[in-house]
Records
---
Amino acid sequence: RWAADPAQRLSALCTAHRPRGTVLDLSCRDGHTLRAAVTFSPLASQGVAATVVVAAELEALRGWEAQLAMLQGLATESSVGLTIFDTDMRVVWGNVSTDLELAGVAQYVGRPAADLFPEGEFISRHHPPDEDQIMEHVLTTGEPIMGMHYRGRAPADPVREHVWSCSYHRLVDARGEPLGLFEESLDITDRYRAQERLSLLVRAGKRIGASLDVRRTAAELADVAVPQLADEVLVDLPPAVIEGRQPPTGSAPGHSLLRMHGRTPEEFRTTPVSYPPSSPQALSLATSRPVVDAARHGSADDPAPADRRSSLFVPLVARDAVLGLATFRRSSNPDPFGPEEQTLAVELTERAAVGIDNARRYTSQHAAALVLQRSLLPQHLPEQSAVDVAYRYLPADSRVGVGGDWFDLIPLSGARVGLTVGDVVGHGVHAAATMGRLRATVRTLALLDLDPAELLTRLDGLVAQDSESRADDGLGDEALGVTCLYAIYDPVSGRCVWASAGHPPPIVADASGSVALSALAPGPPLGLGSLPYENVELSLSSGSVVAFFTDGVVEDRRTDIDSGIDRLAHVLTWQRCPLEELCDRALSTLPPGPQADDATLLLVRTRRLGAGQVADLELPPDPAMVARARTDTERQLETWGLSELAFTAELVVSELVTNSIRYATGPVLLRLIRDRSLLCEVSDNAHTAPHLRRARRDDEGGRGLFLVAQMSQRWGTRYTGSGKTIWAELAIP
């Protein structure tokens, strides 16, 4: 019954000639009031009932009407694509958005889902990538699959690539039986590309410029930008930048650029390119701004067809200098690069430009350090009668930097030879400079005729002082990593004496081919000033091969030093081979790949001076023996065919023997050696060395050593365990 009885209103609704509706409050039997929507519909024919009244709960009706409106909106106005498939996964229906993407959904009704986007693919990998498998899974299990990213070209826009977010749901009837499934898709191309640009920048920050190599940095830019931003990236640089020199100044480098090709040192090559003044490339270089070219049709230096190609030219600028040009090209999307894409390309190019400039500076510094190091190493080793020599020096990989290895051969008195090899820990210009100072110091100390242990002791003190003086500069710690080995070989006796300051000892292969390793552990590295250094004495037969080396020859990241020493020792069993061949054999056993440290190898094959090249005469400390020394010298030179030197040699021998007899308390030994020059040596048991001085006019003596110095090429004094030796070297005409 009516909760209120407005007779006039009801009468009007019942007698109306068309359907009318209103909202009424109805009183239910249980006593509560129900608000309902009531519709009065008059009957067209006369009958018992002239009006039909329909009532429904107002709230439920409004909800139903809202759902119908929503469905109508999804079908006709929503940007979300809705597509219904039957249980055979064939198209049944699509809304307006789907109809627009497919350029008419009617033509696809009854066709399988694969026909909609035949070249598309799922780029989300957390579900099966095949669309049929996804639909089959949803139909079978009823589990929805949501948020799958799908990439393809819509029939309505076959040129541009789009990305959609797709979800799949099963449709069931009132009994719960499957009717099919529906797909909802939303075009997220812009959002997806924005995320790609962000991830591209993150990836660029990690990859571009990490190699400190100009060529590799150019390749890294292409690796990062392709294919997300462009289908191809070209980098053109001036030759000066590639070589590590300053970029050209004064004008944009548009006329002499080299295009980079290849991503590895083996593949790397360049081709020359130049741009006319009116070209967009020249404009970009001249203005230092990006230039978009959407209508290119090829050029003289780029004959490849460029139809439907969009290009973006971005100058490589770092520290206000134009280093080159980066070209971004794409053919899959012919539209010009948009503002966001241009901003991204500029950001990537700026990172690459900084990386290229850093690599250029590093290349320049590395080249300078390498030139410095090689200038400090011996350019050639002097020929000696004592030994045959061959050597190899391999610098560390350029990414590591120049190291501090050095080696040297030092001619000494008495036909002896000093051999040294050393290593400064660290890399760079400072290591090379430290190496140069130490090599010069070793040579200076060696010419004082110090024995190996004494030489290393003095060198240790100098290194320690240098470390203390440079500690304030933060460079002193590196000097504490200096190792050095010094050896002296005497071809007369075959005696070899060496001492080591933290350096691997030499490996010796005698004339029979047997290889011996030293059992004595090396002393401490230079600069520590702790334990003393010890001499090791060996007797070497003629033809023995001695290998001096740095740890780069026998040690790397993959093998330990013991394995490397065994490998080198095995090579030395072929000691009858020429030394140059032995060097090549030794270095060929190094593991392939970049060197982590300098590798220095010095091989010497010993010789012995024959008995016919050495003459010894022992004299008692009697002044009358000076005449005998002159006579025996004249006779020996006549035997050697050196009579032209007789007068000079007799005078030198006379002065040296006279000086020794005057101050010695025991026998005096005269030794003549015929080598590349004539060597005259006088040894005694006195430890006082004579000094060269200029005698006054009224002095009765003091001119002997002055005459010796004037008549000989070199002269000097060396100390022995039993006294000293004064020597003079005369040139053989």
---
Amino acid sequence: MKAARIYLSVLCLTVGFLFGFSPAEKKSKATWIWQSEMIGREKQEILDFCKSNDINLVYLRIEMNKPYDYYRDFIREATEMGIEVHAVAGHPAWSLKSNEKRMMNIVHWVKSYNREAQKNERIRGIQLDIEPYLLPFWETDQKRIIREWQANVQVFTAEVSKDEDLVASAAIPFWLDDIPVPGQEEMSLSKWMISKFDTVCIMAYRDTLSGQNGILNLIDQEMKESDELETRVLVAVNMKPLDEDHTSFAEEGPALMNQQLEQLPAHLAQHPSFSGVAIHDYRYWKEATPLPPATKQRYKGTYIWRAELIGTEKEEILSFAEQNGVNLLYVRLDLEQPTSYYRDFVREAREAGIEVHAMGGHPIWALSESRSKIMKLVNWVKAYNEAVSTEEQFHGIHLDIEPYVLPVWREDKEKVLRQWMGNIEAFVEETKKETSLEASVDLAAWLDKTPTPGQPELPFSHWMIKQLDHTTLMAFRDRAPGIIGLVENQMKYAESLQKKLVVAVETKESHEGNGISFHEEGMGEMDRQLDLVTKALDRYSSYWGLAVHAYDYWKTGKE
């Protein structure tokens, strides 16, 4: 990998760049996650933290006894947010020749995982964090340990470099520049280590930039060595409480840490090797970060089924949304319209704080024979988003399918469910492929009483919730207790998966009897009942708000 990057640098120099990246390249901002169980129990919290702190690189410790599937969702969602995930592993004893095999296990695991993973689920690099100076015999047998450490590093980087897509990196302390390489006393151990890796994180564990014992002075030699060797450098600081206060920002807090780190690019501008910062580690950084004062904003959404309304009453729709606190629109698309037809509407909606999700659907879209119709919608939206500016892009794609109105549902429900499942899997896979689009569906809330084909113990609604970024449960009742009763078990299940649910109600006149729609009660009563729903469901992190079906009926509904 190192050799390939150096070759690339020679090419880049001819067009004014320096070893593969330009001075204008976006810098990395990294953190470590040492407790891999966190991505299972607080995936969304981690991703939200990364987003709010501009983190675009995560060093994730891998527990190799966990199945590959344990890591796929987290890595895919991180990748879609622009966050690279690198595996990190290490132990002081890995510096010893006797532990070379243990060290190499992580390389073999990552390569095996990546072979089976989709492109956006792959691990982008492997970092070693060995720190042999923590061994009890470091002081008494240092030269032998260094020689064996060097040998292990060479084996590691040689194997990683066989995969051109993998980055080899290491975390090293700033003081290795004071230690000579055994047998090569003119070379510092820091320079030798830097020469072997694509990227190094220099653990500059201090709480100030300036002064004799400040970060800038302590890393000066390593920055010069990295410039010479054309190796990327991240400057790492610590948020973990330590005995010596000056070695951590734990006492000063994240605000002061950020102030110091924001000054680094200006101070290190003369070093082309400087590529960003890293904060050790997520757990301590998160614990030290004050919680935002406001809770997350709930959705209040509605549906626009008639695509022609985007052209005929754009201002009326946006005005109605503002008056009613709507911040989510499911908009059915007419794919015969040109790209320009939607651009102004989507941009003005987004400027007003409204997410716009492209919508399509029909009962027959549950059947395998109609999969191409779903793919046509997905590919149209992806092509549209690529052709327009960021503020004109759709936030997601939403399907409304409802096959239970088809005669075949009564004839062979399991067959329909199996085909529906296949279509949803294809929909999610294609939607998420190289995009950040959110995939969502409408789902009848009563499908929690229908078993999943092949998994009779799993309610079908639970299977569906697991597949999507968010699911809108059609809980068409006109009293809060009835709405809550339809969705509460699904709220609990979605919370266990850190999935988002929206609860939808009806305002269209219903011919299924009383108790289905708010058409008779009016919009004022609907608001009162939905307030009760929110108060009851607010304790679930999976509850993301409400949707009213649909704009046409809501705006003309009686008060």
---
Amino acid sequence: MVLRAVSGQRRLITGASVLAASHQACEALVPVVIGVLIDEAVSTGSVAALVRWLVILAVLFTVLSYSYRFAARGAERASEQAAHRLRIELGERVLDPQGGAEAGRLPGALVNIATEDAKRVGRVNGAVPFGVAGVAGLLVSAVALLVISTPLGLLVLLGTPPLLWLAHVIGRPLERRSGVEQERAAHASGTAADLVSGLRVLKGIGAENAAVTRYREASRNSLAATLRATRAQAGHDGALFALTGGFIALVALVGGHLAIGGSISIGDLVAAVGLAQFLLGPFQIFSWVNGMLAQGRASAERVASVLAAPPAVAAGDGRLPQEVTGRLRLKGVTHGALHDVDLDIAPGRLTGVVAPDPAAAAALLECLGRDADPATGSIELDGVELSGLHPSDVRAAILVAAHDADLFEGTLWENVTAAVSGAAEEKAEDTDPSAAMSAGVGRALTAAAADEVASTLPHGVDTTITERGRSLSGGQRQRVALARALAADPPVLVVHDPTTAVDAVTESRVASEIAEVRRGRTTVLVTTSPALLAATDRVVVIDGGTVTAAGTHTELLHTDPAYRSAVLT
């Protein structure tokens, strides 16, 4: 996939390579033309020859100037387009309903791979045309030197391959350290993003010093890796400059010896020395290209590790009934903290699930949202196994509203209507917020008590909320997130602890409103809130990873001490 993104700009790279090669060829011919000018015009005093060769020089400079300009433009475009395509592919892979790309990686690390690493891989496209140009410059120089003197031409032709091989060997430490540099930088970025997202919590528990220490360590490791990579870059460039400088000096020495012996003319000597000096350019290009390729290979491995990450769940080809009734059945489900769970959730009913162990609740939500498939057992929706469906089909039918669901930057209305088709357009045409509140989305706002949140904001539902809803209190965020889940109105809605940060009066109101707005639709409340559980039709208790009791809220309060302890303490 990485190779496809890089090679997708083949036409641009080919055009840029031709132009760059033309530029280097013209540059190589400049000292040759000057040498001929000396022999045919200066030495003979011919004005006509002088004018003729000056015109040829002017044409050469014009061609090399324009060819370089358009070659650089094409190479840069190929580089940016390849990086852009990689960013798109990385974004699609991370957002793939099957998941898996985020496993073992902090969000900041993924961002670093999608930006810096994608950019470095894209630069390979920008380096290739100039590498081709360097080869063209060397070939033209070698041919010119062969014409001037066979020993000089053979020296360049036979001496270049060993130099290129040594350049590759010298570039290996740079490649290794460049990969470590990017890995540490990504970890530091991920740590910073993680700490910033939890800054309010850290301040609340007085853990600022621990957070600073954690980031300082990650930053120091990143700095150390960057310094090692920089030293490798400096050593790489210095070694190549020494090699190429010695090689050029040897070419000039051999040319001077031939001139002294009378084997070549003064013009040939000037051309040979000029070509020797010109050779520094191609070798510098090779040094730069080799560095870009080394860094690109290291970054390509990181990009490929994300793109090739195995999916968390398989994409089945099964189909749900056209009208989903919402009957859920768990048969012998074992996953994480769940062990051999059998559960039957009737369609159109409001069911409570009490799981005193947070790990059991999290495992249940993962399975119902198909973020993971159970190790054993099966989960069915209307008689169809979830593992046989595509994850996007499952999530269209079963919406799992997590306890820690984030809001995004935008208006309150945009957050609530994010999953409601056409709601944004409906609001855009209706400039009266009170009229919009009377629509289905307004009903969801009322049911979640998010209408009260809107009433306290300066512009009501049109008030802009900052990233992750940080401009709202915890209770306000919960109510807006619940309103978003209710507004989506899926066939099956699974909500996890939606009222832990709201007061008791509001919680009681929300409980009755959820029962009303979801009447006739399958709803599962994973919670230990007695107010919410009192509004359910049936409650299931999962204790020790398995189902231990079932009944109404009132029945369980009187008959199950474990249930009573879980919901009343």
---
Amino acid sequence: MNRKTLVPAAALGLLAPVIAACGDTESGRTDGDAIVVGTTDRFTASEEAPAPLDPAYAYGVDTWNILRQTVQTLMVQPRGEGEPVPEAAESCGFTDAGNERYSCTLRDGLTFADGDPVTAADVKYSIDRARSLKADSGVSALLNTIDTVETQGEREVVFHLRTADATFPYKLSTPVAGIVDPDDYAKDKLREGFRVDGSGPYTVDIEAKNDELVRATFTKNPDYKGALKVNNDKVVMVSFDSAEAMGEALEKDDIDVISRTMSPEQIKKLSGNAGDDIDLVELPGLEIRYLGFNTEAGPVKSKAVRQAMAQIVNRGELVSKVYGSQAEPLFSLVPASVTGHSNAFFNKYGEPSTAKARALLEQAGISTPVELTLHYTTDHYGPATKKEFEQLQKQLNDSGLFKADIKGEPWATFRPAELKGKYDVYGMGWFPDFPDADNFLAPFLDKDNFLNSPYSNAEIQKKLIPQSRRQADRLAAAGSLTAMQNTVAEDVPVLPLWQGNQYVAARGDITGTAYALNSSSTLQLWELGRGVSG
């Protein structure tokens, strides 16, 4: 039968997108016994984003799922939960009591896939390059606590931080801190196109057509030296135009694994129907969805309008009508399962109330109905996104206080437009860079934030974020984290909606799915096997 397996949080994070593309998806069976993974993501090299796979630019779970297989980092997140452990490094740690000096020693004999040695100078080059390029994706903000990087000999790298940062080891496990060869990645410009080179567990061959990635073939790197055990020789990733086509390919045994994104209907069918050759694995979720606001534009420039929307939106109804048991209402940017979470929005607004929303608008002198457009991406967060926005539109318009339209665009158009501030209201999702409350707050609220939002709060940026990062014991950071969440509920620069579980469907002979994702939602292809223990 279809065996629905619940994987506990201690074992696994959540499923993330794998590759993004479109192309020949009739069958992935073109490489012998390679494990074939399907996805519905789109991934494009465009004028606005010409270097999608450069570690100094890439900032999405889809691109990171390619980079994590190929570009090595000093640290790596372990199976299940827990602090990051050395990967390209043989050891790393703070060397002072104030968490402001961090030292790593590289493993002996590391080489890039082309045979060039990996040295401490390459690590410094890679980190300094990402910081100096400061790509508009916002990914370099993960490195903004670094002051200087120095090398001591061929194998030791020392990071001097501007301020204490207990989360720094996590940041060194993210692809922006990936080690690249100076011969392949210029210091003063991004590497355009789809070429990827590194010292990770795989090399990758990428097929592209019309500036879209069509297929990615990952081949085990025979010269890889690191902490990871690679359980397969080859993985092929294939993109599909729809969740339905991807599901049919799995049923026909044309592919082995479905990654992101299945529709709610598919998940319900797979979890309830009988069969004997497909596993459905349910994974605890750290994915969140939210509305973002350009707080300097249009009707949402008024805080009262954003607060009124927060007062009207019925998360329970939204989740039940669109996602069912696959998601749950979220009342903060920080998911309920993460240390430091606070139900800040429920504490401030309580149950949905049109009367309270009307009072907020009247007090601010706002005429109703307020006209606005909710923008969403049609091809990045799954096939249910349109239905979700239709439900949001209905809730707002049924209040009589808003006249909302909705408009969907492909991610390749949507994301650059959002970064340029062209949308007043827009829907986004977030998969954490690492599983800490800081990473659900700082990327949205700090300088050079992920959304390129004009919203700025001096207390958050100058006091609360640094204060929370000084606490190595994350429970001790609860006061600062709660204060930030309360401020977000008051000012509403973003409006959290829901957090969701994730799902993997795989043929019965595929092993390792319980460890195929780390706790920050990123795919780990090396864990997958065929008929062998992972």
